[in-house]
């Protein structure tokens, strides 16, 4: 399956999720290829850190910020893998458009904040564009870096705001809370599922595993 983690907005957790999911799937025995379509190449850097530390399993990773190159390479190589996980973003990114022409599933992370909803309009436009030239494919958004305070209404309000786009991108009935373990893991080229987590950090692993089971069962 080709999974694309996408949002034109920066800082929503695209790289964090791409790295965490790719490694977790590899640990489930899947042949995984992580494709970094973002100019910054953060996912690729994370995987480089992993390979320099010689952490197993190694993850195949390529950096294709150019849309036509990404499209050609993914078409050529996808059948060698169980999972191709593409990270892309940026307003005028050709890589993002290319990924959306190929993907089986688009996952759109968003974070609490009043400006997030605006960025979603760009993503919706890109999805509509892709869907007009190919067979339909599922796209779901997910609240990331959700407030851990159970009394806070921020999460509910954000999910409600995103429901405006539910026709194109329904919000997943699952979320990932703000947990340092996600950030620490991805930054060092690891997934939370392979780290020795302190008891209070364990929910990070459960949240990631549940997300993976939702996405790959689709
Ligand atoms: N669930 C989470 N809990 C805690 N920190 C998180 C979580 N998700 C992401 N972060 C942190 O938020 C910041 C942004 O995440 P990330 O770099 O993955 O976003 P991005 O969408 O790839 O951004 P960019 O567009 O700049 O590449 C990072 O510092 C990351 O460590
Ligand atoms: Mg990134």
From TrEMBL:
Cited Pfam families: CbiA (PF01656)
Domain of life: Bacteria
Residue ranges of domain CobQ/CobB/MinD/ParA nucleotide binding in the record: 3-191
InterPro entries in UniProt: CobQ/CobB/MinD/ParA_Nub-bd_dom, DNA_Partitioning_ATPase, P-loop_NTPase
Name assigned to this protein: Plasmid segregation oscillating ATPase ParF
Source species of the chain: Candidatus Pantoea floridensis
């Amino acid at each position: 399956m080709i999974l694309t983690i996408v949002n034109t907005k920066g800082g929503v957790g695209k790289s964090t999720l791409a790295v965490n999911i790719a490694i977790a799937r590899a640990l489930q025995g899947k042949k995984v290829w992580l494709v970094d379509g973002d100019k910054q190449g953060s996912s690729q850097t994370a995987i480089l850190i992993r390979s320099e530390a010689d952490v197993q399993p190694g993850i195949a990773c390529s950096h294709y910020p150019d849309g036509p190159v990404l499209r050609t390479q993914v078409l050529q190589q996808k059948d060698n893998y169980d999972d191709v996980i593409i990270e892309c973003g940026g307003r005028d990114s050709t890589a993002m458009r290319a990924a959306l022409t190929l993907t089986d599933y688009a996952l759109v992370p968003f974070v609490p904040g009043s400006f997030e909803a605006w960025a979603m309009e760009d993503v919706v436009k890109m999805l509509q564009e892709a869907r007009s030239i190919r067979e339909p494919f599922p796209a779901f958004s997910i609240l990331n870096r959700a407030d851990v305070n159970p009394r806070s209404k921020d999460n509910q309000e954000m999910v409600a705001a995103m429901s405006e786009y539910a026709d194109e991108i329904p919000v997943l009935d699952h979320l990932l809370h703000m947990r340092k373990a996600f950030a620490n893991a991805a930054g060092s080229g690891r997934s939370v599922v392979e780290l020795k987590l302190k008891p209070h950090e364990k929910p990070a692993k459960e949240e990631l595993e549940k997300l993976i089971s939702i996405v790959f069962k689709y």
